[in-house]
């Protein structure tokens, strides 16, 4: 599944959008009255399974009022590149709530689930999960979002042509590989477990605006290992983190820690106070989580790189994206990096697999034989990647996870993007309140401490596991998704900010 969304504009009067307007107008008659509540729960896809290299590449190509102390979300996922890291959450939507399984994605913004109007959307999955098509008629708290509401105007960049009373707001989400989902926006309750003490939670909920998918094109989520949709944690005002923050439910902060060895880890919204994490500023005016990389070190040698190598076109900096499996580097970085790695063992029998993967047989310890790769960023922040993290096994060989973005399509040519390959086994903290991001090496199966912003109390949050259906060809690693919110839920409209 592509996690990065391409920048796009569209005419509200185009045939597709007009069609969606017709769909949403017809659905409007079925809308129920709205309350303002919310919830979540989480799981994962491939743990320990060795997929084809084609599957790996396909995954990446498509790919503050009163505050709650926290929200506890069981998460599924794996940071291992040979496990095609796809993290997904089990969330409850509606009243009464129904379960939906959605990919957790920091590279896109809109949360969406497949809707009852979708004729081509999957209804079955080989992952051992039950898929559900959202039907607003089944929820007493569901409400369509009008095309004249503030949320719709912001997402679509202004008024929509043909917007009249009782017409719902359409959405069109296009991902970097050209796949897409389209439908209309609704608002409904989403449920979560808020942190109420050390290793303790109580149930809470709040309302979120999300996409009700009526059509989809070429999405990996519609294949054999299908999911219900995507949970967007991107930077824009339409993302889940931004909506919760604008309604006063959370601080605009979250963190994840992906266990690349055993599977599992932590995903948290809120103020993590332990471990301490050094931060680097986000690059302003970029649609994703971009930071300024300053140098690349292989072993003890710094690569000689042009000063502007990480500023191609209008893309500034390096994208940090937990939803992407591998790591993509500009050609002038990729080639000397891979050459330096290979040169450590001159007798390697190197193969190029599928035209782009550098692979070789090696029977000894890769950590003893190959160099550590270290990336340096502004504010003295660095990210160290060990050989067992950037090398992954495939058919009796080891393959290098670094990818040459100079060989990608024109819209992604020579970008710099760091995915699960380098982010695993680190606690990564996103602080949008201060426009900064940081990380530290960490045991992702251990505990973290979070702060109750109202009382100043620090709560201990530890890993726990949720039950998971089994798949005949793989074991599932189960994760913890912890959403750290604020102390008492205030039911506020996420768009107007009015008290309910």
TrEMBL record:
InterPro entries attached to this UniProt entry: Aspartic_peptidase_A1 (IPR001461), Pepsin-like_plant (IPR034161), PEPTIDASE_A1 (IPR033121), Peptidase_aspartic_dom_sf (IPR021109), TAXi_C (IPR032799), TAXi_N (IPR032861)
Entry keyword annotation includes Nucleotide-binding: no
Molecular-function GO terms, alphabetical: aspartic-type endopeptidase activity
Domain Peptidase A1: 87-440
Signal sequence coordinates: 1-31
Active site: 105, 321
Key words, A-Z: Aspartyl protease, Glycoprotein, Hydrolase, Protease, Signal
Taxonomic superkingdom: Eukaryota
GO biological process per UniProt: proteolysis
Family per similarity comment: Belongs to the peptidase A1 family.
Protein name: Peptidase A1 domain-containing protein
């Amino acid at each position: 599944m592509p996690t990065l969304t391409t920048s796009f504009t569209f005419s509200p009067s185009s045939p597709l959008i007009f069609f969606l307007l017709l769909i949403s107008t017809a659905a409007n008659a079925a809308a129920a009255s709205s309350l303002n509540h919310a919830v979540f729960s989480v799981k994962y896809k491939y743990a320990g399974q060795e997929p084809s290299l084609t599957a790996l590449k396909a995954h990446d190509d498509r790919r503050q009022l009163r505050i709650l102390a926290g929200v506890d979300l069981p998460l599924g996922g794996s940071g291992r590149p040979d496990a095609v890291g796809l993290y997904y959450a089990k969330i409850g939507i509606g009243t009464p709530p129904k379960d939906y399984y959605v990919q957790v994605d920091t590279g896109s913004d809109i949360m969406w689930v497949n809707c009852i109007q979708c004729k081509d959307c999957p209804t079955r999955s080989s992952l051992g999960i039950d898929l559900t098509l959202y039907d607003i008629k089944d929820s007493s708290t569901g409400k369509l979002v009008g095309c004249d509401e503030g949320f719709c105007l912001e997402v679509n960049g202004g008024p929509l042509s043909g917007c009249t009373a009782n017409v719902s707001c359409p959405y069109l989400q296009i991902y970097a590989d050209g796949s897409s989902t389209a439908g209309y926006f609704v608002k409904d309750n989403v449920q979560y477990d808020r942190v109420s003490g050390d290793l303790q939670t109580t149930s809470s909920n709040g309302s979120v605006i999300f996409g009700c998918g009526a059509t989809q094109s070429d999405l990996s989520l519609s294949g054999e290992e299908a999911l219900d949709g995507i949970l967007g944690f991107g930077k824009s005002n339409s993302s889940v983190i931004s909506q919760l923050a604008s309604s006063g439910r959370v601080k605009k902060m979250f963190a994840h820690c992906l266990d690349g060895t055993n599977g599992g880890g932590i995903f948290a919204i809120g103020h993590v106070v332990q471990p301490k994490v050094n931060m680097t500023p986000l690059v302003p005016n970029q649609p994703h989580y971009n930071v300024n990389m300053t140098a690349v070190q292989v072993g003890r040698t710094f690569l000689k790189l042009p000063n502007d190598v990480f500023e191609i076109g209008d893309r500034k900096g390096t994208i940090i994206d937990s939803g992407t499996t591998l790591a993509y580097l500009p050609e002038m970085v990729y080639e000397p990096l891979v050459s330096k790695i290979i040169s450590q063992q001159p007798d390697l029998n190197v193969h190029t697999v599928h035209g782009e993967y550098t692979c070789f047989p090696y029977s000894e310890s890769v950590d003893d034989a190959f160099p550590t790769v270290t990336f340096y960023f502004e504010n003295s922040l660095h990210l160290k990647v060990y050989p067992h993290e950037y090398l992954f096994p495939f058919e009796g060989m080891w393959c290098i996870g670094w990818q040459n973005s100079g060989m990608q399509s024109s819209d992604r040519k020579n970008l710099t993007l760091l995915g699960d390959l380098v982010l695993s086994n680190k606690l990564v903290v996103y602080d949008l309140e201060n426009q900064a991001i940081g990380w530290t090496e960490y045991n992702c199966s251990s505990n973290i401490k979070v702060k109750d912003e109202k009382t100043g109390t620090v709560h201990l949050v530890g890993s726990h596991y949720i039950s998971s259906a089994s798949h005949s060809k793989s074991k599932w690693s189960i994760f913890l998704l912890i959403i750290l919110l604020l102390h008492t839920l205030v039911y506020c409209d996420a768009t107007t900010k009015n008290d309910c």
